[in-house]
Specification:
The complex is a heterodimer of chains A (320) and B (428).
Chain A (H helix, E strand, L loop, with lengths): L35 H27 L16 H8 L1 H32 L4 H15 L2 H12 L4 H8 L13 H28 L4 H9 L4 H12 L1 H16 L3 H6 L13 H9 L6 H31 L1
Helix pairs in contact in A: 1-13, 3-7, 3-10, 3-12, 4-7, 7-10, 8-9, 10-13, 12-13
Chain B lengths: L4 H17 L19 E8 L2 H18 L3 E8 L4 H11 L5 E4 L1 H9 L6 H4 L9 H6 L1 E2 L4 E2 L2 E6 L3 E4 H6 L11 H15 L12 H7 L16 H15 L12 H9 L5 E3 L4 H8 L1 H6 E4 L10 E7 L6 H11 L2 H10 L3 E2 L17 H15 L10 H16 L4 H14 L5
Parallel strand pairs in B: 1-2, 1-3
Antiparallel strand pairs in B: 3-10, 4-5, 6-10, 6-11, 7-8, 7-9
Helix pairs in contact in B: 10-17, 17-18
The chains are: A mainly alpha (320), B alpha+beta (428).
Chain lengths: 320, 428
């Protein structure tokens, strides 16, 4: 009998080590231990569990107790939420935070787009402008707060200029008036956020097909019509994303109001925001962690509703 | 080794719970600690913002204690001025409070209420005789039934007036306002002349201002706040009238004590209720203002106000006998006197104020101020009730601001503040 020629895989010859067969052990063995993927996930899972899930669950549990910093507290059911309902400071904080969202988010969605459209190009001056607009983003919030505090103080630069121009006879209370303080904080938020969102828009603008602008130009559209009918629809998804991001940031505003009011929440606490209220109730030796937890839960729910509403609105708009 | 299927789901959950459980725990142990055992071992001693200027004194104090008590080690920790309460909070929550802590009565009250401080009325009642009675009483909390810290240093101070500001705004410096009525009248006069350029008053009244005005702050048993009576309404109404006349700016309604001092240094405020180290501070940081400043006795309708700093002992200290021994050593007459001579403060040890340092005038401004303040200390009381928490301080300021702005009735604002402060008292 003659031997039948057999095609042999060169890897199975002595030139290369044989592959390990599944289920038989050895260094190359894979896929037979169900927990192997979990090992890779452990670091990330640990971070999520320790820093997100556990604090979240703990906050939920705390919100139903009368716990303080130094005493674990007892179960009080919905008492903390009933107390919130009657708490003037909570109402003020919720009003201010929601007002912040209503006023800041539209500006945060629209203004950076305009800036991005204006600063989109390769010339040196545009590069300089992009850098200048982005500068506040990399500045410390404390520095930003100090700059604006000095500008808006009753003896600050803004009041001095207005006085010099003869526009005012008495200083404008930018940092102590009920609504002016909030407005000042919004201006700071917008000033610091413009550059960040502008960069996101610049990335989105790069994805718009230049042929669309050419076509619009051929059809007789000027720069404004091109912006409205090509640029704006072209970055719609990015705008939606920025709307979500800025809503969360605006509702959670803390630093700007804290610094402009010297940490007090304004005259009579009239400018306090939800996060400041949580900080005031939940820190210090006399911290009421249970009550602060209840405020956090309400904040979470409101923020969730806010985002769900925005998503629904955008989907509804997108389906038309 | 293999796991059965349910283990695939159980293991991550167990892991999650185990990791999560790392953060669970704490709570106060109500067990009473008694002082026993030898004065040996290591303790930690925490002060508040004293290392910068008094490191030599404290290093010497620690060395002297260690030499007098062989086998002991005192680890001195000094915390920066900002966020001291937060540091105490973090330590208390983590169960790592230092063995001996520099503390004010309101923080001591909260920690004592949580069972974290040694009750000296039970463990060391004889110590009471070594201190000024009012200093000892400042850490005696009737609602908790104990005394929780050894009195350390006291501070009080006169009124500081910026005479240049008074002159510019048409107020005579001869005589300087010596009563609240005179102060508010001068404030109204300044408002008419200077408008908001400079005002007499730079801050809203604090709880101790009510005390100095003659308002009873708490009932005798320490179970209820009472700073909403007619006298309190009268005081806040003075501020309201002053604000409405332009004698206070809207910005001053938001000022804390540091803001008031800064405004005084900037020449925007005429009157500063100061302390014994205000003059030294003014000379160092606002020399032009220091040149024009006039000093007069503290404005009060009753006894002068003073502040106290004490040393509390951690009830859960591993070397509680050593901690107690060190706290008593640091607050004894000799060491308090030595510290008082380095810092512009006053000793709380019995008889220490009789030292010639507090009774002999060497002709300097500092000595004059020291003698006047020492005299005030001997009459003064700690008005700030220990049970009046820092949160109640903030709430009171907010309510008064709303009343002064005219957004709330004065009586209603004070009632609200009292209700809030009452709610933070320990539940029976």
């Amino acid at each position: 009998m003659t031997a039948t020629p057999v095609r042999r895989d060169t890897t199975a010859t002595g030139t290369m080590p044989p592959r390990a067969r599944p289920g038989r052990g050895g260094i190359g063995r894979t896929h037979d231990r169900w927990w192997t993927p979990w090992l890779f996930l452990v670091p990330a899972l640990a971070i999520v569990v320790v820093f997100i899930l556990f604090p979240f669950a703990n906050t939920l549990a705390l919100s139903a107790t009368d716990a303080t910093l130094l005493k674990p507290g007892q179960f009080v059911g919905a008492d903390n939420f009933v107390r919130l309902w009657h708490d003037d400071r909570f109402r003020t904080a919720m009003t201010n935070s929601l007002l912040y969202v209503v006023c800041v988010v539209p500006v945060m969605v629209a203004a950076p787009l305009v800036l991005a459209a204006l600063a989109n190009g390769t010339t040196r001056i545009l590069g300089f402008l992009r850098t200048a607009y982005y500068l506040p983003v990399v500045m410390s919030s404390v520095i930003v707060g100090l700059i604006w505090t000095n500008l808006l103080d009753s003896r600050g630069l803004v009041n001095q200029v207005l006085d010099w121009l003869g526009v005012i006879s008495e200083p404008v209370p930018f940092l102590s008036g009920r609504w002016l303080t909030l407005l000042s904080a919004m201006v700071v938020t917008i000033w610091t956020g413009l550059g960040y969102y502008m960069v996101i828009y610049l990335a989105a603008l790069a994805n718009i097909d230049p042929a669309l602008y050419d076509a619009a130009s051929v059809d007789g559209a000027g720069p404004i019509r091109q912006f409205l009918h090509v640029t704006v629809p072209g970055v719609r998804t990015t705008s939606a994303l920025i709307g979500l991001f800025s809503s969360v940031s605006a509702f959670r505003v803390f630093g700007e109001v804290y610094i402009l009011t010297g940490g007090t929440g304004g005259v009579g606490g009239q400018n306090i925001t939800i996060t400041m209220l949580i900080q005031q109730e939940g820190t210090g030796l006399q911290a009421e962690t249970g009550y602060a937890g209840a405020i956090s839960v309400v904040m979470f729910v409101v923020l969730g509703l806010l985002l769900a509403g925005q998503l629904w609105f955008q989907r509804r708009g997108g389906s038309r | 080794m293999s796991f059965r299927k349910p283990a695939r789901y159980v293991l991550p959950v167990v892991l999650a719970l185990a990791l999560g459980a790392c953060g669970i725990g704490g709570g106060a142990d109500d067990s009473e600690t008694t002082v026993s055992g030898e004065v040996k071992g290591e303790i930690t001693f925490q002060t508040w913002n004293l290392k910068g200027n008094y490191a030599d004194y404290f290093n010497g104090l620690v060395t002297a204690f260690q030499n007098a008590n062989p086998g002991t080690t005192v680890k001195w920790i000094d915390q920066p001025p900002e966020g001291y309460q937060d540091k105490l909070s973090a330590d208390a929550a983590a169960g790592s409070l230092p063995d001996v802590v520099d503390i004010g009565p309101e923080a001591a009250f909260t920690l004592a209420n949580a069972g974290m401080l040694l009750d000296l009325s039970k463990t060391d009642p004889e110590a009471k005789a070594s201190y000024l009675p009012k200093a000892w009483d400042a850490n005696a909390f009737p609602s908790l039934g104990g005394t929780y810290a050894y009195p350390w240093y006291l501070n009080t101070g006169p009124s500081f007036f910026n005479t240049a500001v008074l002159q510019k705004c048409g107020v005579s410096k001869d005589p300087l306002p010596a009563t609240f009525d005179a102060l508010f009248a001068a404030g109204q006069k300044m408002a008419a002349t200077c408008k908001s350029d400079a005002t007499m008053v730079g801050r809203l009244p604090a709880i101790e201002t009510f005390g100095a005005y003659g308002v009873p702050l708490m009932d005798q048993a320490g179970t209820k706040f009472t700073f909403n009576d007619a006298k309190a309404v009268e005081l806040v109404s003075h501020y309201r009238n002053l604000f409405q006349a332009g004698g206070m700016t809207e910005e001053t309604l938001n000022k804390l004590q540091t803001g008031e001092v800064d405004a005084f240094k900037a020449g925007r405020v005429g009157w500063l209720p100061g302390s014994s180290y205000t003059l030294k501070d003014l000379k160092a940081t606002a020399p032009k203002v220091a040149e024009t400043v006039a000093i007069s006795p503290q404005i009060t309708n009753d006894k002068p106000n003073m502040y106290i700093e004490s040393l509390a002992v951690n009830a859960k200290s591993k070397n509680v006998a050593t901690a107690v021994a060190f706290a008593k050593f640091a607050t004894n007459k000799e060491n308090q006197l030595a510290f008082s001579k380095q810092a512009a403060i006053f000793p709380s040890a019995a008889g220490a104020l009789d030292d010639p340092y507090f009774t002999t005038d060497d002709g300097t401004d500092e000595a004059k101020l020291r003698l006047e303040s020492a005299k005030a200390v001997s009459e003064a009381v700690v008005y700030w009730p220990a049970a009046f928490s820092s949160k109640s301080v903030d709430y009171l300021r907010e309510q008064i601001a709303l009343a002064v702005l005219g957004k709330k009735d004065v009586q209603a604002a004070l009632d609200e503040a009292v209700k809030y402060a009452d709610a933070s008292l320990p539940k029976k």
